[in-house]
């Protein structure tokens, strides 16, 4: 992991910071991060040597880990984790029994409660970590762009499609590409007046990294939406909008990340619409009327 000094995380986002750092960590440090995230309450009561032993690594690795995410002292990390656990318990006390992964014996009520709990926290965490300056810059660039190309793979492709449909409704030229080859072919035709937006929860998807690389080489401004700001995907972008999705075995990228990505997309779209508020509202009314009137005509 890079030893570039980082600012100490807000205590409200320490678990988000640990989660987002995982792709850039050494294997030993990754074990430490995953152990903390699996049971943060238990970890908050461990010493450095106890945590190192639990993770089958050295105390040096533990020190390197907490310094790498912005802490000078291990006790400060433990204190922030304790504060975050307390905050979550207080804010979501009515759902306190819904934490954890889905079990084979869970009822439908249990499933609903656990999914709602996880996704509520994903939205709340994303709201805290999403940088407003970066979002404002992304809104400005998207609003001024002559063309907006969007690309994502798997569940992220649905998020891209959602953004495309929203932008089209306010008169923007937006294209969402369904497969890598189409996306790459389009990326090389972009120019400095264009914006390329790609979505990847993991930040490791090679096709999305290549899409941004080609778009940037062509002169377009590139924007990444991802859970991991230190990922290769984020490094390929001019601007990164960070999500904070929570994932477990059942709530993997297809579920855990999508709600957070859609929140970011909604914020981006609303900012673009606000930049030309009157014309955007008129376009939204016209597009609604076009669909509504056609439906009424078919039913008459």
Please give the count of helices: 14
CATH class of the largest domain: Alpha Beta
Query: Which structural class is indicated by helix and strand composition?
Result: alpha/beta
The Rg value, from CA coordinates, equals 21 Å
CATH architecture of the largest domain: 3-Layer(aba) Sandwich
Please provide the count of β strands.
5
Strand content: 5-15%
Average pLDDT confidence is: 86
Taking strands numbered 1, 2, ... along the chain, how are they ordered across the largest sheet? 2-1-3-4-5
**Sequence stretches where pLDDT stays below 50 over 5 or more residues:** 1-5, 249-254
Helix content: 55-70%
N-to-C series of helices and strands: HHHHHHHHEHEHEHEHEHH
End-to-end gap: 65 Å
The fold-level CATH name of the largest domain is: Rossmann fold
Main sheet record: 5 strands, parallel
Classified in CATH, the superfamily of the largest domain is Glucose-6-phosphate isomerase like protein, domain 1
The best one-word shape is globular
Give the tally of structural domains. Answer: 2
Could you describe the 3D structure shown?
This protein has helices at residues 14-21, 27-38, 40-43, 48-54, 59-68, 74-91, 108-129, 132-144, 155-169, 180-187, 206-218, 232-235, 253-275, 277-299; strands at 147-152, 174-177, 194-199, 221-226, 239-242. It has 300 residues and is an alpha/beta fold. The protein has two domains: 11-88, Winged helix-like DNA-binding domain superfamily/Winged helix DNA-binding domain (Arc Repressor Mutant, subunit A), CATH 1.10.10; 132-286, 3-Layer(aba) Sandwich (Rossmann fold). Strand 1, helix 9 and strand 2 form a beta-alpha-beta unit.
């Amino acid at each position: 992991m890079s030893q570039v000094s980082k600012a100490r995380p807000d205590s409200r986002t320490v678990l988000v910071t640990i989660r987002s750092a995982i792709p850039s960590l050494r294997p030993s440090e990754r074990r430490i991060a995953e152990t903390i995230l699996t049971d943060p309450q238990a970890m908050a009561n461990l010493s450095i040597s106890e945590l190192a032993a639990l993770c089958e690594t050295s105390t040096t690795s533990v020190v390197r880990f907490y310094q790498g995410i912005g802490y000078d002292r291990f006790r400060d990390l433990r204190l922030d984790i304790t504060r975050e656990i307390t905050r979550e318990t207080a804010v979501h006390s009515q759902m306190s029994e819904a934490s954890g992964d889905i079990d084979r014996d869970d009822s439908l009520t249990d499933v609903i409660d656990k999914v709602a709990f996880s996704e509520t926290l994903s939205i709340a965490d994303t709201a805290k970590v999403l940088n407003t300056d970066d979002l404002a810059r992304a809104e400005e660039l998207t609003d001024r762009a002559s063309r907006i190309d969007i690309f994502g793979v798997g569940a992220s492709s649905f998020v891209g499609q959602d953004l495309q449909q929203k932008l089209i409704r306010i008169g923007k030229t937006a294209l969402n590409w369904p497969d890598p080859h189409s996306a790459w072919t389009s990326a090389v035709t972009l120019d400095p007046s264009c914006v390329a937006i790609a979505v990847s929860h993991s930040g490791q998807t090679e096709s999305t990294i290549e899409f941004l690389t080609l778009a940037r080489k062509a002169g377009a401004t590139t924007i990444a939406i991802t859970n991991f700001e230190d990922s290769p995907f984020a490094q390929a972008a001019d601007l990164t909008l960070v999500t904070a999705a929570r994932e477990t075995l059942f709530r993997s990228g297809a579920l855990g990340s999508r709600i957070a990505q859609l929140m970011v997309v909604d914020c981006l779209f609303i900012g673009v619409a606000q930049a030309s508020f009157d014309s955007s509202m008129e376009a939204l009314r016209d597009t609604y009327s076009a669909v509504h009137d056609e439906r009424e005509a078919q039913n008459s």
